[in-house]
């Protein structure tokens, strides 16, 4: 019998062989025997067409997922991708890649919306599908073309950042090991994991420089980090605490910065709705408010595109000041414009 059950799986499995080819064994992705039989029939027909008619092999969603997971196991999104794949398996498990069309993708999007999650969560889930389909089409040549995945609108979130006064209050309430990390974060804009995983081998105090390795960076590219005098001062205060890691607590590397001490310090400082990652927003906001051009901020923060930095643009209007002055000759008195004195200044 070609359909069978395995002890380690609730799904039906299939074993088929066509025209003396090597037998293929794989999960049907379903516990329903009728659906498993339909999957078996499609698989046999596909194998027969490949062998006798020379048609191009058709690949399943499961085959694509397995290959994708193997090729992207190094990425920081690996665990969340697997979480999405588990949810998606209910709707894509028995599908060939060329059966995944726009209509099916839209229906899955609608189903995900009905589970009560945000549009952003739905988009993250469907973007995983899009990445698999694009790779199948462009890299593996398993698919003639990848169906486009539509994204749902996402609300623009407010950027949460601290004023200098708020930051000072927070620093005064933190225990020494967290204070040092927060000071360093505000001086460099590094992400949380890059700070508590920072090692002395990544620091050059003489050249005032640090670097984040490619496998530690969110974008997968190494980042050079110029160190300000404030950052250098923090690092010198951590010398000799531990041989490998820069930031430690009682001689051990720090693995959690968002515990009770962090939360209580926020309460004592009177700071609401603030996450550790908002330290990076604060660093970027301070830069823009003090005149750092966005393209320079992009390089300093290791963002891959200028669009990712545009959300801070509204915090500074200094670059617009010269253009405002071009119409500074306009006189308005009691709602009446003196045309004779109105002159456009050429700049």
TrEMBL record:
PROSITE patterns cross-referenced by the UniProt entry: CB, TYR_RECOMBINASE
Keywords linked to the UniProt accession: DNA integration, DNA recombination, DNA-binding
A GO BP annotation: DNA integration
Domain Core-binding (CB): start-end pairs: 59-137
Gene3D superfamilies linked: 1.10.150.130, Intergrase catalytic core (1.10.443.10)
GO molecular function: DNA binding
Matching CDD domains: INT_Rci_Hp1_C
Domain called Tyr recombinase: residue spans: 157-325
Name of one Pfam family that matches: Phage_integrase
Record-stated family: Belongs to the 'phage' integrase family.
Protein name: Integrase
């Amino acid at each position: 019998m070609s359909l069978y059950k395995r002890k380690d799986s609730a799904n039906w499995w299939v074993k088929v062989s066509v025209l003396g080819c090597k037998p293929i064994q794989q999960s049907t992705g379903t516990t329903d025997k009728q659906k498993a039989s339909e999957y078996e029939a499609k698989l046999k027909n596909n194998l027969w067409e490949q062998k006798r008619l020379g048609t191009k092999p058709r690949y399943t969603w499961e085959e694509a997922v397995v290959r994708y997971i193997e090729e992207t196991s190094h990425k920081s999104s690996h665990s969340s991708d697997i979480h999405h794949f588990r949810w998606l398996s209910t709707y894509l498990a028995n599908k060939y890649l060329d059966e995944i069309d726009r209509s099916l993708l839209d229906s899955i999007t609608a189903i995900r919306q009905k589970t009560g999650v945000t549009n952003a969560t739905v988009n993250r889930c469907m973007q995983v599908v899009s990445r698999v389909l694009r790779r199948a089409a462009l890299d593996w040549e398993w698919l003639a073309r990848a169906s486009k995945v539509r994204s749902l609108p996402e609300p623009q979130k407010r950027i949460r950042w601290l004023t200098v006064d708020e930051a000072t209050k927070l620093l005064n309430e933190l225990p020494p090991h967290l204070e040092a990390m927060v000071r360093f974060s505000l001086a460099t804009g590094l992400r949380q994991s890059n700070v508590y995983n920072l090692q002395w081998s990544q620091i050059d105090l003489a050249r005032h420089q640090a670097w984040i390795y490619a496998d530690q960076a969110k974008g997968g590219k190494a980042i050079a980090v110029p160190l300000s005098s404030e950052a250098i001062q923090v690092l010198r205060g951590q010398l000799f605490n531990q041989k490998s890691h820069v930031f430690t607590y009682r001689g051990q590397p720090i693995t959690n910065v968002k515990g009770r001490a962090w939360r209580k310090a926020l309460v004592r400082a009177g700071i609401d709705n603030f996450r550790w990652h908002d330290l990076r927003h604060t660093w970027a906001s301070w830069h823009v408010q003090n005149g750092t051009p966005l393209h320079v901020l992009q390089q300093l923060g290791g963002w891959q595109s200028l669009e990712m930095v545009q959300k801070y643009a509204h915090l500074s209007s200094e670059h617009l000041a010269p253009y405002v002055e071009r119409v500074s000759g306009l006189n308005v008195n009691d709602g009446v414009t003196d045309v004779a004195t109105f002159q456009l200044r050429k700049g």
